[in-house]
Amino acid sequence: MWASLRTAAWLGWQIESNWASPALFALYSIIKPLTSAAILVVMFGMVTQGNFASPAFSYMYIGNAFYMYVGAIIAGMAQSVVDDRERFRTLKSMYVAPVNIPLYLTGRGVARFFTTTLSVLVTIGFGIAFLHLQVHPGDIRWGLLFATLCVGMAMLAMMGLVLASIVLTIAHGSWLVGEAVAAALYLFCGAVFPLDALPWWLQPVGYLMPVTYWLELLRRALVGRVAQQYPSLAGFDDRALLTLLVLITAALGVIATATFRRCDRIARERGLIDRTTNY
Amino acid sequence: MRSRQSTVGESTVGQSTLHRASGWRLFARTVAARAYPRLIMNVREKWWLVFEIVLPLIGLCAYVFMYRANNAPADLIGFVIIGGAMSAYWMNVLWSMGNQLFWEKETGNLALYIMAPNSMMAVLLGMALGGMFTTTVRAASILAIGSVLFDVRFAVDSVPLLAAVFMLALVALYGMGMMFASMFLLLGREGWHLVNLAQEPVFLLSGTFFPISSFSFWVAAGASIIPLTLALDAIRQLSFSSGAAMGFLAVRTEVAVLAVLSVVFLIAARLLLRKLERLAIAEGRLTEARA
Amino acid sequence: MRALAIETERLGRIYKPRKHNKDESKTRVALSDVSLTVPRGELFGLLGPNGAGKTTLIKILTTLLAPSSGWACVEGFDVHREPQFVRPCINMVSGGEASGYGLLTVRENLWMFAQFYGLSSADANRRIVELLAIVKMSDRINTKSSQLSTGLRQKMNIARGFLTDPKVLFLDEPTLGLDVEASRDARRYIRRWVDEDATRTVLLTTHYMVEADELCDRVAIINAGRVLACDTPAKLKRTLQREPIFHFETTPLCDGDVAAIAELAGVRKATHSSSDGRSVVELVLGEERVVGPVIGLLESRGIGLITLSKREPTLEDVFIDLVGRSMEEVEHA
Fold this sequence. Notes:
The complex is a heterotrimer. By secondary structure, chain A is mainly alpha-helical. Chain A is built from ten helices and no strands. In chain A, helix 3 runs antiparallel to helix 5 and helix 6 runs antiparallel to helix 9. Chain C folds into two domains: 228 residues, P-loop containing nucleotide triphosphate hydrolases (Rossmann fold); 94 residues, Alpha-Beta Plaits, CATH 3.30.70.260. In chain C, the strands form three sheets. In chain C, strands 6-7-8-3-9-10 form a six-stranded mixed beta sheet, with helices on both faces. Chain C is α/β, with parallel strands linked by helices. Chains A and C meet through loops of A and loops of C.
């Protein structure tokens, strides 16, 4: 099992780092996340007359920065299925080999984790340096931050596995699924606005999203004072929230395993493992 | 000594004769043929309704709620909805034209297109028109549903002018798309990364979710090379009561610039396609499969 | 004299390494000094191992790749300077092709490609039905191409090549992926298609000797980017017939035994291989009576002779004679 994960992580890195021009890679890692954040910065600046010292700005900026992990890992794992099946045509070889497929898919997400970490660091760093982002190294709760990141990565990997499993059963149009789901989750998990801003009938969806709790914990670890000003999850202290996140992640693990088994069976029955659509 | 014969217009198969179209007829047949796969997909693969409409709409709502959480004026919500609708065309230009050629190269279709007596511009136009149905449904759905969901109030004085601006914007945008697509004749995987890279910067610079007048004059002027920028600004000015106050240039000026851009991009696309095709053939890049 | 369908003069192609590409370390000569003429109505074969330059030559002739030196004409038009006149006359089928779109049916894919050549829908549909019947795929006409097996997809590709009734058809290993019967049917059809109309020409590349031998009017043997010989299969083989070839099957031989055999007077060439506990030696002899000393040598070394036969030369022998190694050995090198 460890070999599957390790080999997949190596493969994922080979694919991610296969850039014709390292300069282009550097540009991509910096420009893409910064412009994504800049859209929100301009929007915020326009309606608040540039009040970046406001807690709302830190709330939004940090949520958006760390949300990159969600898109990269969840969409990335789903995209791995598409790439391996359609472009590289190696998925059938993986199935024939004694490889643990769920771990293989998880391993393919590891490379994305590293490239995204660079983007997140660049984004946060830019925010601190130029936009008065209220992150002070002395105030960061490193233990909570580390624990949250670790549990969060496991959570995202499980969500990614669920999505990748579903993509296994879709022959046509599977390349859209990952990005579309990540874009949709953006609304419900309070990434750039507190859950209270949603209509009352949509808020329960946000409370069901594990990413909501994950982002909240990250804010508490990085900018605790800011997070306190948004009472959406005020009823949960850090320990309770972290425990809830761990439990949800464990539940996701069970769901992901069951989903993979079912989708794997469906894909085999329909002959989708090596189906190429050429489209 | 090289011998020379006339081109073939007909050929005999047994007792029958195959007639071949040329010139504009061949152009039209190529456009129709290449649009066909895109159009038929809408009938055969109905999942696109979810992934092209529902999920992008949900993602767009995040920006709307972000504005609402910060007490933004109501018209700005409408700006986001229009931006989301028009951005569908930009995404189509990026992924279904430019990047599509990268995919065609991988599958071997590009070699067959180049080798056939048709024109690559016809192939690209076919791709554009074929994708336009899906994109227009996406854009219209976002506009309609978003407007109803968020109670957007439009104040349109002239529908014909609005329609004209929209059509001009499409011509300019797709002309730019053809220009980019020609670069894909030379590019391999780095092309995919460039397309990926071009999404957010264009959304930022064109003011997809905010008025472009938020930027300084020169930044906005520079961004106006992207047809989406002035198209969005003109459409917003014509659609909302506060549109003119938040506008960048007068609508007339923006329409004139869009018209110039349309012509420039279409001519540039034609020239670049020829030049880059020759370059790709010289360097052997048309048929390489680069993972 | 028949007009020329294909003409090349000192054609060459060099691939230079590109910046940032760590896989390309040096310049590669894919083709060098290739001069060929193919008259109309000929089924011309290009035979050589993988990497010999066959596909590179086809890419140049089909206007997909520019030559680095020399020139080439198809139907009298320069492939580099006048591609717009070449393209209406040609079509190409490659082995293992994955062209077309998976969500379209076989008919729709073929119709689409026919449109790129200006065929009317009526003509295209009629041709599609005819050609699918020939490749025995009529029952799959409405199957999505994503649901086809490799062999069926290749049959569809073959149909695509003939669909536009080109003047010059380039077939780059067209039977790759086809089963034995389908390959035979394809070869028969290719031969018939050329014979039906004296203005049609086919350039076929293959690394299957049997295919070249059976099908082609003339064959050019190519290796490492160079044409080594070009003539009818019969004449090429006849160049070796002055030297008899004998096939010995013996008990296992060591390197010393093989060397001793090769050094015998009258032995022109000795090729040795082993399998299933036996050794197989092919000897090209100066004259038939050299067989005697060879048998004597085997006896003196205590090597058992299992079978002995005289073999007529094949194109593979011609290749070995020209290159010094078999095609498989060249590919593995």
